[in-house]
Design brief:
The protein has about 100 residues and is an alpha+beta fold. The chain has three helices and six strands, in the order αββββαββα. It has one domain: Aspartate Aminotransferase, domain 1 (Alpha-Beta Complex). The protein starts with a helix and ends with a helix.
Length: about 100
């Protein structure tokens, strides 16, 4: 397990009620059956909206998540590189809250 994978798992497990699962064959965490974070190519991917999504996208190397690689990014999903792993917990918390509220 890489350092990044370990950090990802610790972050996911720190959210009460989060369950480990798979999304597009990649490890993810869900709340109420809905994915809020996943791990992809040494990056974490977060479901966000509004201003926090725009702030996350402004980070160097961040981009909308395109798991197919066919230039069809997912509009509410941002992939943040390990370069910014110190910010991952903040975005995971925001993603958890966003998905939890929208799935009620």
């Amino acid at each position: 397990m890489t350092k990044e994978e370990k950090i990802y798992e610790e972050i996911g497990q720190s959210h009460l009620g989060a369950e480990q699962s798979q999304m597009f064959g990649k490890p993810c965490f869900k709340i109420n059956g809905k994915t809020f974070i996943c791990f992809y190519e040494k990056s974490m991917v977060f479901k966000l909206s509004g201003n926090i999504l725009n702030v996350a996208l402004s980070l160097d190397g961040s981009e909308l998540f395109d798991p197919s690689g066919k230039r069809r990014p997912m509009k509410e999903w941002v992939q943040i590189t390990a370069k910014h792993r110190d910010k991952w917990p903040r975005y995971a918390k925001a993603a958890f809250e966003y998905v939890q509220l929208s799935s009620q």
